[in-house]
From TrEMBL:
Protein known as: Phosphoenolpyruvate carboxykinase [GTP]
Binding site for Mn(2+): 228, 247, 289
Keywords, sorted A to Z: Cytoplasm, Decarboxylase, Gluconeogenesis, GTP-binding, Lyase, Manganese, Metal-binding, Nucleotide-binding
Organism: Candidatus Heimdallarchaeum endolithica
Secreted found in the keyword field: no
PANTHER family linked to this entry: PHOSPHOENOLPYRUVATE CARBOXYKINASE, PHOSPHOENOLPYRUVATE CARBOXYKINASE [GTP]-RELATED
Protein residues bound to GTP: 271-276, 393, 424
Pfam families reported for this sequence: PEPCK_GTP (PF00821), PEPCK_N (PF17297)
EC number(s) on file: 4.1.1.32
InterPro entries: PEP_carboxykin_GTP_CS, PEP_carboxykinase_C, PEP_carboxykinase_GTP, PEP_carboxykinase_GTP_C, PEP_carboxykinase_GTP_N, PEP_carboxykinase_N
This protein's record includes keyword Manganese: yes
Single GO BP term: oxaloacetate metabolic process
Cofactor: Mn(2+)
Length: 631
């Protein structure tokens, strides 16, 4: 067998034990193309997993830090975030038009030819690691098996922290062809162990083969098959099979003094408070990024976290705002830091707390290109280089968090009672409201927008359309994706359908100051939780149901011992009709252009506009106080 060229007898036996001809074929095909010097097959044993952990250190892709188990990994200066321009969906030429303007496609034949030629010999001189994982808990209706081949020990190690092992699960596959596979190569590396040929970075998604090919990158959002690459394949699979794959956290809201847990899912675009909502103190976390949703035999909507770890933004993780994560990052245990500043084996990041003195020199994400960092150092354009990258990350296991929910690995998933859609909006929406029903909620999710912040490139305050916070990952026409949400809702009985809420933590006053404190999101979720249990009323407005003043007063007092003023309530919960109407125009302009749009979407859009115009006419103002609707 050709595999003998790369693999030991023992490793070949490991592959053969899977009894899966397709796995053998994929390994042979891509070993032949990528031409690694050697290969290794990793199973679920502690011994094999320890081998990968050590390999990342031996190869220098990670370096030890001062706390036991902590390591640092750097990505190339030019590889610090997802590469949207070079992440493309392979589509047959005749289908290209169906995908509209928002999905980055390339002709399948042309794309394959290009990427396979880039991958030819991309692993020369390196070791190819073959790994098996399970997306979602093992032994579950949700489980999807995944094969990863990578020449990066950092990638293989990260996946160990972030996903469940799946070698044994592969042996149980009902259909031996039903798995995802991911071929990754960091490509040739510089002497600093970062990708050399960034100009040839490509991430191509092939739905026909349920595979993603990714080359010349290391940043986890580009390289790790099981994260955003699998998300794209799973969206397609879910739509074909009648369930949902969403870019959502899963968290249990635990109200004080009530003996219960209510599971919420939440979709928020990047940098809109998703992980911090999942991590609200007092609640417990199942996942912070990606969920599969299915309807079980009792008609309940259930969800699992497809991951078992967090690849989180480290910026602003400090003892006050993110106590659980801060604690995990400052305690010995298996943790990978990436793209932070390191000095004397200690990691430093932006916003880690005022009482920590940041060194003026050290190694950071700029060092592989520009040498050691020191304060005042500038990039080619003359901008000062921060000591830690704004998108620097940590990789940890959820089990290592004190607020890990007991249902993390439950093969049945958790019962979904509510779904939240959040955006970043300084001047339009209220902090929290409830949709009238599922279809209205889907419309709210489809209309999520996020304003750019000063921290991202380009002009601040520009609104980006982010349907379900999933736009970057949707690989079917947008209309088809939305239709799947309407269809899913139809399959659930009224009393079992999750309630859908909208949140906005970023509303500002006329002096450009946020109304909300960082932890006020706890109150908005507790209000939503009490709505799930029909424990409080609400005010009907043109946009949906908003909280009553007295209910919020009670919650703020009970939870934070804070007096929530009538003035603040009125300012935050006024319905800004004109702003909402402007938003509707923006949303309509985007979806009007899309193919296969479900009728339900435009019904909701028109009803929403009608309600807003009627209210404006009736109350003769573009900003309506919440108290007005009580009369
Ligand atoms: C996100 O940007 O949504 C992330 C990080 O979760 S990444 O892995 O880059 O996608
Ligand atoms: Mn994400």
């Amino acid at each position: 067998m050709a595999l003998e060229k790369w693999l030991s007898e023992k490793d070949i036996k490991k592959l053969e034990a899977l009894n899966n001809p397709k796995v053998i074929q994929v390994v042979e095909e891509f070993f032949s193309l990528c031409k690694p010097e050697k290969g290794v097959v990793i199973d679920d044993s502690d011994e094999d997993i320890e081998y990968v952990r050590k390999l990342a250190l031996d190869l220098g892709e990670e370096k030890p830090l001062h706390l036991d188990g902590h390591t640092i990994h750097f990505d190339s200066y030019y590889d610090q975030a997802r590469d949207k321009a070079n992440t493309r969906l392979l589509v047959p030429a005749e289908k290209k038009d169906e995908y509209g303007k928002h999905i980055n496609t390339i002709d399948r034949d042309e794309g394959l030819k290009e990427i396979l030629s880039i991958m030819d010999g991309c692993m020369e001189g390196k070791l190819a690691i073959v790994r098996f994982f399970c997306l979602g808990p093992t032994n579950s209706d949700f489980s999807i098996s995944a094969l990863q081949i990578t020449d990066s020990a950092y990638v293989a190690h990260s996946e160990d922290i972030l996903y469940r092992t799946g070698y044994e699960q592969f042996k149980r596959l009902k259909d031996p062809n039903d798995f995802f596979y991911f071929i990754h190569s960091a490509g040739p590396l510089t002497e600093k162990n970062v990708t050399k040929n960034i100009d040839k970075r490509r991430i191509y998604i092939d739905l026909e083969e349920n595979r993603v090919l990714s080359v010349n990158n290391q940043y986890a959002g580009n390289s790790l098959g099981l994260k955003k690459l699998a998300l794209r394949l799973a969206i397609n699979k879910a739509i074909n099979e009648g369930w949902l794959t969403e870019h959502m956290f899963i968290s249990a809201v635990i109200p004080p003094k009530k003996n219960r847990k209510t599971y919420f899912l939440g979709a928020f675009p990047s940098a809109c408070g998703k992980t911090s909502t999942a991590m609200i103190p007092g609640n417990s976390i199942v996942g912070d990024d990606i969920a599969y949703l299915r309807i079980n035999k009792d008609g309940e909507v259930r969800a699992v976290n497809i991951e078992s770890g967090i690849f989180g933004i480290i910026r602003d993780v400090n003892p006050r705002d993110d106590p659980e994560i801060f604690k995990a990052l400052t305690t010995p245990g298996e943790t990978i830091f990436s793209n932070v500043l390191v000095k004397d084996g200690k990691p430093y990041w932006l916003g880690m707390g005022n009482d920590i003195e940041v060194p003026k020199k050290g190694t950071n994400w700029t060092s592989s290109l520009l040498g050691e960092w020191e304060e005042g150092k500038k990039d080619e354009e003359g901008n000062e280089l921060k000591f830690s990258h704004p998108n620097a990350r940590y990789t940890i296991r959820i089990e290592d968090l004190e607020n890990c929910d007991e249902a993390l690995n439950n093969p049945e998933g958790v019962k979904v009672s509510a779904i939240i859609y959040g955006g970043r909006d300084s001047d339009t929406s209220v902090p929290v409201y409830e949709s009238f029903n599922w279809n209205h909620g889907v419309f709210i999710g489809a209309s999520v927008e996020s304003e750019t912040t000063a921290a991202t490139l380009g002009k601040a305050g520009v609104r980006k359309h982010q349907p379900m916070a999933n736009l970057d990952f949707i690989v079917v026409p947008l209309g088809k994706y939305l239709k799947a949400h309407y269809e899913f809702g139809k399959k659930v009985e009224d009393d079992k359908r999750p309630k859908i809420f909208s949140t906005n933590y970023f509303l500002k006053d006329e002096n450009n100051r946020y109304y909300d404190e960082i932890l006020d999101k706890k109150i908005w979720l507790l209000w939503a939780e009490s709505r799930v249990h029909n424990e409080c009323g609400a005010i009907e407005t043109p946009i949906g149901y908003i909280p009553k003043y007295e209910d919020l007063v009670k919650l703020f007092k009970e939870v934070f011992n804070v007096d929530y003023s009538k003035e603040r309530y009125e300012a935050e919960f006024s319905i800004r009709v004109d702003k909402f109407l402007e938003k509707l125009d923006r949303i309509e302009a985007i979806f009007k252009e899309e193919k296969m749009m479900p009728e339900e979407f435009f019904i909701e859009l028109n009803n929403q506009r009608k309600r807003l115009l009627e209210a404006k006419e009736k109350h003769k103002t573009g900003i309506i106080s919440p108290f007005t609707f009580l009369n």
